[in-house]
Design a protein that fits this description.
Layout: E1 2-7, E2 12-19, E3 22-29, H1 34-49, E4 58-64, H2 68-85, E5 89-93, H3 94-106, E6 110-116, E7 122-129, E8 135-137, E9 142-144, E10 158-160, H4 162-175, E11 180-182, H5 189-201
Parallel strand pairs: 1-4, 4-5, 6-10, 10-11
Antiparallel strand pairs: 1-2, 2-3, 6-7, 7-8, 7-9
Length: 231
């Protein structure tokens, strides 16, 4: 499957092309520059592969939770591509992509992924690798104060994401000490692409009009002025 994935849900911006198990990715940690970066990244990975967008079989994107402005950018780009190309989309949790990246880079099979949601809250989810190396959520992604986060089931686990960088003390009080912690990890488009391919295989892809974002926070419409970056 020839699948293009992108993620703009955090301070990192990335795009990845998966073709026959090979990955071509562009990734940059660049807060508030996603609008400028994402389309050139799409063009760059396609050019490197010597492919035209019309050859793509599907798309995947980090649908949130995360930065409100970034989620809107990613949703707009992916819907535009899907409509223009007439192909379907996989909606991938940014927390799942974060956990998948920790498995890929650190070999950790159980992850409490947490993103800083501002307003003294975190987006979080507990993920565990299945037999095929796909991180699956145990329960569901949630929004809560860090002190209300539930610990993972008994056994070794690690923390990951900017939520740990911002609220490490409160998270440790709520959940105990992780075996390790990776607060500088961000979602990557290559993991979005991998998870997106899994969703396609499971028949969970959607048409462009249903490629909708996930915010988790009900009062998102009340956050003005640069959308407070997180919602």
């Amino acid at each position: 499957m020839k699948l293009l994935g992108l993620d703009t849900t955090s301070d990192a911006c990335s795009c990845a092309l998966s073709v026959g198990g090979q990955i071509i990715e562009r990734y940059q940690l660049a807060p508030r520059q996603h609008t400028k970066l994402i389309l050139p990244m799409v063009e760059a990975v396609l050019a490197e592969a010597g492919m035209k967008a019309s050859a793509l079989d599907g798309l995947a994107f980090g649908c949130g939770p995360g930065a409100f402005t970034g989620i809107r950018i990613g949703t707009g780009v992916i819907q535009g591509l899907a409509l223009g190309l007439g192909i379907k989309v996989a909606r991938v949790s940014s927390l799942q992509a974060l956990a998948q990246g920790v498995l890929r880079t650190h070999g950790c099979a159980r992850v409490l992924a947490a993103l800083d949601a501002r307003m003294d809250e975190v987006y979080w989810g507990v993920y565990e690798a299945d037999a095929d190396g796909i991180m699956r959520v145990l329960g569901e992604d949630q929004l809560s104060p860090p002190e209300a986060v539930s610990p993972p089931p008994a056994g070794d686990w690690v923390g990951a994401g900017r939520g740990w960088g911002s609220y490490e003390s409160a998270l440790i009080t709520a959940c105990g000490h992780p075996q390790d912690c990776f607060p500088e990890e961000y979602p990557h488009a290559q993991d979005v692409a991998l998870l997106g391919a899994t969703l396609f295989a499971e028949g969970l892809d959607v048409v462009a009009e249903e490629a909708l974002p996930v915010y988790l926070r009900d009062q998102v419409a009340q956050v003005p002025k640069a959308e407070k970056e997180m919602a």
